[in-house]
Every structure is written in structure tokens, then in C-alpha cells.
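FAQ: What does the model actually see?

It sees only this:
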Amino acid sequence: MKRVLISLSLAASAAFLASAAMAAGMLTDSKGMTLYVFDKDTKDTSNCYDACAKAWPPYLVNGEKPKGEGWTMTKRKDGAEQWVYDGKPLYFFAKDTKPGEAMGDGFKGVWHVVKE
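And it is asked to produce this:
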């Protein structure tokens, strides 16, 4: 019985380390929430509004200054400012509820995590 518990514990530890490594390679906000790009966007322009923006909330600028090289901002058609990285507007996925989750990666072939 001890061997089974040790094996399960090691498997759980390995899974945790694998997910932490995955999170380390993805671009996140300051809270560790994964950021995504949408293939249907064009340079510096979001094409995700209404129902799309409910499922994929835009990463909005809240008075912050540019974060470094590659980071800019764009104005959305609703007037809000959205963060952009390397010309691509950034989003969260509503089903990601914890830092490091990336459940939206590859969604419908058009949503992708941003790799660091």
C-alpha cells in the first residue's frame, strides 16, 4: 500500500511540475493568468467583440504604462484600450480560473497562448 501512495504522490508531483513549466513558457498578466492571441485579428486591431469578448475578455489597459519591448496599446471600437504584444491584441480565456491554466490553447484552431 505504501508503494501505491508513493507512486501516486510522485505522479502528482510530476504533473504539477509539468504544468508549472508550461506556465513558465507562456506570457501572463501580473496575476499569472495566461494571455492569448486570436488569428482573426489584424495588426493592432481586435476583431473580438460581444459574445466573443465574453468568452475571451480583452486584456485591458488600466492606467499602466507600456510593459517593455514589443508591448503597445490599441484602442478598441468600444473606446477601451487593450494591450498588444508584437502587433497582436491580447486576451484571457473565461474558462481559465487559476494562474497557469491554458484551457483555451488551440481552441477552434484560432486561439493560441502567447509563448515567451
